[in-house]
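input
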Amino acid sequence: MMDWYPHATVAVVVEKDGKFLLIEEQSSGEIVFNQPAGHIEEGETFVQAACRETLEESAWHVKPRYLIGFYVYRSSTNNKTYHRACFYAEAIKHDADRTLDEGIIQTVWMTRDEVESNMHKLRSPMVLQCIDDYIAGKQYPLELIHEYSN
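output
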């Protein structure tokens, strides 16, 4: 029997002028849309991971303001379970000369309706759910997260 473990990830909703920052990327041989998102690295806090992933994937420096929610998704593509902490973050500065992570095609800004019309191209259903929860006003303070180390 193989060991099972969840994949701890973060995602970031960034809204500007009624549009949401999405990443167009290659995943499992397909081109998909996702929020800036990725795995938490060893020694990182949730908030640090959210800032790093957003910068690496979109070249945007952001300031997380609050937690939108926690999400669990089991992918039928790879049979992995993802535990996602999704944050709302304010766009601070764009670094247009920065090289994006490998596999990233481009960043795009889409309205909520444009995201929904691309449902078949979303990396997971969490993408639209996070946007809808943000629009619904779901907000939890960053202080909800308690992180300890020795």
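quick obs: The chain has a mean pLDDT of 95.
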